[in-house]
Structures are given as C-alpha cells and as structure tokens.
C-alpha cells in the first residue's frame, strides 16, 4: 500500500531539507514541501480534478512538477508529463488521447492555449489547502508516461502505485540508499528515469534532492564540491561530458559514495578514469514498462564483467528465451522477458498492443541478451535492430561495444543498410579525435570480431544526435544514412539464430 511519506517526514523531521531548487534558489524543508503539496491539491480540487482525471503538464524539470505529482495523488488523479520539445501537433494528439481535465505548464505552445482544459498554471487561484487522506491502493494509476511507438503512435505507459512502490523499495535496498544521501537531479521528469531512478526512492526515505532544470557538467561538479552530493545518476554521454570538463581534474569528489549509469553501456576506460579519482560506479538497466530499475552491476564487477548490465535485482524475475519461448543455454543469445510487481498496468487506450507484449505474467522486452556462467547479463542489441548479413545474424550493440573501446573513438553507433550481395551490412557512425579509413577500422576489428560483423561503411560526425533522455537518436541516424544515399529496409522482427 502506497503511504504518503511526505506527510510522515513533515511530522517526524519537519526542518530537514527535502529539496534545493536551483531554478528559484529556494530551499524547502519536508514540512514546507508538504504544505506546498497541500496547497496544490486544494487548487486542483477547486478546478474540478477528481479520481481518474488526467493532468497534462508540459515543462522542464522544476519544483511544480513534483508538487503536482504528489497533489494529484491526493485526488486520485493521474499526472501526464510531456516533453516540451514535442511538436505542437504531437502534444495536441496526446491531449486528444488522454482528454485531460487540466492542461498546465510553462512550455505549452500557443496552438493549445485554446484547448478547453488549458489553464494558466501560475494563476490557479488561492483556495484552502487539501491535506492528505488515507493510503491509496496499489492498483491506482499515478502517472502516464508517453514513449515512442514502433507503429508511429506514442504509447502511454500507465504506472500504478504498486509498481512505483516496488521500484522504490527495491532501489533503496539494492543500491543501499540512505536518509543522509544527497542527490542531484537534472534528468527530465517526462522520462521514467527522472522520477524513478533516485527521485522517489530517495524521497521515500527522507533524503535530500538538489533540482536542476537541465544538465550542465560544470554545475554538476560545482554541486558535488559545494553541496556534498553523495549519489548521482546519469547516462554515459553525461558522465563523459563531466569527465571532459576542465573542472573535473581539480574538483573534490570525496563526498561521492557512488555514481549510477544507465541507458547505454559505460566505456571501461571511463570507469577506470573515474576509479582513479576514487569514484565507484554502479550500472543499471530497465525500461519504462518494467522498472525502471531491473538490473544492477555492482562496482566490484565492472572490471571483471565489462559491458554487462549486471544481475537481476531481487524484485525482478528475468528469462532469456528463443523464438518458441523456451529458455536458452548459458551464453546463448535470446529475447529478454521480465516480470514482477514493478510491471506497468498497460498502455493507455492500446490494450491489444500491450496484451501482445505479454507471455503470461512476463513482459516481452524486445531486447536480445545473453547470460554468462556466473549469472551476469549482457545486452547484444534490440530484436528490431538486428540484421542479417550473408545469412548471419549481426547485433549492432555487439559491434558498437568493440568500436567504443578504441582509444580514439568517442562514440560509435551501427545501423543496417542494404547491400546487393550480402542483403544488409553495417554503417558505422562515429565521433573521434581523428578520421578512420575503412581499412584501419577493419584492422582494429579483425582480432576482435568475425569479418561478417564488420561495418562496410563509415560516417564521421562532429557530435552524435541524442534524444532528450541522453540516449542515441537512432531514427535520426537512419535518416542521415538515407540522405547520404544508403537504402534502408523497413525492419521486421527478425528471427533469433
């Protein structure tokens, strides 16, 4: 059962700092934050928000994001955070899908100002605050997160109280979070990691958050030095930017207990460089529909098991299966299925699509993985990204990991393009300190990868296109490949060999 921990900490540790909002410069104790949530809940109630109603919020990460989430819970309502970078038409289509009671935020385009649910979020009126009531049931939907859909239609992932609670409890226990921990949050709240990697787990035990509107590597280092940040999570591109910042070499990092990386493999050379500064790394893996915290690679295992996502966390049950749904042997590639209390309730208005992703209680992730003899899992790619070259299965993720180990390569991503003889071959986009010829690249890969896995084409970029969550924008790379004259087939769901 979801307990209102904000109310509990407002009573047991009223003066402890809960949040430092760098956008406004204001510091909030647990008592002050609980009172602000009461105030927001009263405003929502006055505007007719009730059980099951949706509140669409369009803004960057800010205090109001958090207070709206907790206030909506009081009323049984559902927060629907949207990416401010979405096109106005995309936002309009999502609003049509969820039919919000209120449309709020600082980044709503003029197109939506005429929407019947639009309100000026800064002028919702002053009404009597609405205190918290009884705990809410595990089945209550608290949030809908929209993710990209392979069919072109975004999927609204419904996160219920039991799912979020299971993730919070498992994260606190497995990551060993402590009430005296301080974390910096600069990842967007419209993606699952923003709320669910550290924000809610740390709030649930009375920790302290420092909130930044966006990522800035220099400001991260400044917060570590001046505010005593003890735990911090980000994606590899962000950790690379922190490492490359001029202030990195002289910033005091002794307060850090550990960094947590997710979203993509963390290069071993980067781990080693941080390790030399006394900073241990953990690595995680999960997805919006299940988790997001499902796997954890502990600090001691990073050097012995490079490229691994670790082992399943205690609350997460994982299977690796072949096309018939049968378990594969150790070190064999198969599709990852996950189950546990941290699975979502479904897709909003797309029940058939979600049902098609289930095999009993298991969620079919679409990730191709293998598990070694010691129980460590490795992602080799997405099922839809795998391609067949000369009759052999090629997993782009496997090739990318080898390319990214080269000391002169910053980041490499492989996409499949058509070939008259081999059906499909790899095109490697890469950033680097120098330009590679194809012969040089193959010379590097020869002792490490079978020839049929080698990229046949190279395109050097000044920077890699990224999504708002810091992950690689693969659709943009495929578009660039097409613009460069390469043909790309519409990817089917290939078989596993």
Describe the structure.
The chain is an alpha/beta fold and 497 residues long. The chain folds into two domains: 5-371, ANL, N-terminal domain (Rossmann fold); 384-483, ANL, C-terminal domain (GMP Synthetase, Chain A, domain 3). The protein is built from 14 helices and 25 strands. It has helices spanning 5-12, 30-46, 63-75, 88-98, 161-175, 192-196, 199-203, 217-227, 236-244, 268-276, 351-356, 396-403, 438-445, 474-483, and strands spanning 17-21, 26-29, 54-58, 78-82, 102-104, 141-147, 155-160, 182-185, 208-211, 231-234, 258-261, 281-285, 295-297, 311-312, 317-321, 334-339, 346-347, 358-359, 362-371, 377-382, 387-389, 392-394, 409-419, 423-432, 455-460. The chain has a five-stranded mixed sheet with strand order 10-11-12-13-14. Helix 2 crosses helix 3 (63-75) and helix 8 (217-227) packs across helix 9 (236-244). The radius of gyration is 23 Å and the shape is globular. The model is unreliable at 491-497 (pLDDT under 50).
Gyration radius from CA atoms, angstroms:
23 Å
**Structural class by sheet pairing and helices:** alpha/beta
Uncertain spans, ≥5 residues at pLDDT below 50? Answer: 491-497
Q: What is the CATH class of the largest domain?
A: Alpha Beta
Number of E-type strands: 25
What is the number of helical segments per DSSP (H or I, 4+ residues)? 14
The major β-sheet equals: 5 strands, mixed
User: Could you name the CATH topology of the largest domain?
Assistant: Rossmann fold
Sequence of strands across the biggest β-sheet: 10-11-12-13-14
Principal-axis shape: globular
Count of folded domains:
2
* Proportion in helices: 25-40%
């Amino acid at each position: 059962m979801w307990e209102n921990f904000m109310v509990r900490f407002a009573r047991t540790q009223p003066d402890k700092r809960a949040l430092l909002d760098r956008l406004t410069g204001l510091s909030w104790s647990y008592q002050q934050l609980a009172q602000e949530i009461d105030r927001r809940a009263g405003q929502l109630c006055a505007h007719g928000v009730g059980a099951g109603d949706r509140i669409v919020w369009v803004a960057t990460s800010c205090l109001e994001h958090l207070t709206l989430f907790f206030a909506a819970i009081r009323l049984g309502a559902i927060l629907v955070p949207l990416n401010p970078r979405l096109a106005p038409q995309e936002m309009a289509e999502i609003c049509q899908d969820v039919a919000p009671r209120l449309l709020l935020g600082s980044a709503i385009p003029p197109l939506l100002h005429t929407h019947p649910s639009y309100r000026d979020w800064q002028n919702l009126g002053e009404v009597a605050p609405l205190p918290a009531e009884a705990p809410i049931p595990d089945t209550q939907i608290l949030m809908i997160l929209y993710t990209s859909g392979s069919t072109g239609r975004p999927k609204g992932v419904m996160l219920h109280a039991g799912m979020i609670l299971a993730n919070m409890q498992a994260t606190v226990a497995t990551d060993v979070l402590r009430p005296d921990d301080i974390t910096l949050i600069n990842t967007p709240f419209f993606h699952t990691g923003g709320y669910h990697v550290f924000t809610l787990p740390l709030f649930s035990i009375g920790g302290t958050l420092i909130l930044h509107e966006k990522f800035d590597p220099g400001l991260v280092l400044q917060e570590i030095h001046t505010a005593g940040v003890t735990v911090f999570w980000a994606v590899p591109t962000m950790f690379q930017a922190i490492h490359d910042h001029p202030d990195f070499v002289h910033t005091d990092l002794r307060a850090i207990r550990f960094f947590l990386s997710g979203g993509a493999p963390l290069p071993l050379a980067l781990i080693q460089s941080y390790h030399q500064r006394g900073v241990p790394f953990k690595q995680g893996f999960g997805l919006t529909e299940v988790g997001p915290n499902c796997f954890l690679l502990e600090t001691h295992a990073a050097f012995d098991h490079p490229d691994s996502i670790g082992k399943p966390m205690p609350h997460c049950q994982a299977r690796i299966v072949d096309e018939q749904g049968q378990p594969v042997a150790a070190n064999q590639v198969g599709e990852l299925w996950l189950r546990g209390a941290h699975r979502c309730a479904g897709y909003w208005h797309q029940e058939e699509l979600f049902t098609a992703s289930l095999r009993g209680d298991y969620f079919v992730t679409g990730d191709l993985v293998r598990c070694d003899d010691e129980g460590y899992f490795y992602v080799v790619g997405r099922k839809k990204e795998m391609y067949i070259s000369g009759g052999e299965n090629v997993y782009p993720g496997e090739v990318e990991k080898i390319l990214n180990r080269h000391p002169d390569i910053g980041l490499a991503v492989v996409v499949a393009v058509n070939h008259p003889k081999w059906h499909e071959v790899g095109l490697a986009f890469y950033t680097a300190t120098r330009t590679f010829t194809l012969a040089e690249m193959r010379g590097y890969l020869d002792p490490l990868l079978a020839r049929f896995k080698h990229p046949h084409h190279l395109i050097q970029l000044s920077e890699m296109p990224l999504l708002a969550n810091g992950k690689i924008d693969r659709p943009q790379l495929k578009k660039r490949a097409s613009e460069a004259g390469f043909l790309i087939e519409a990817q089917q769901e290939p078989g596993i060999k």
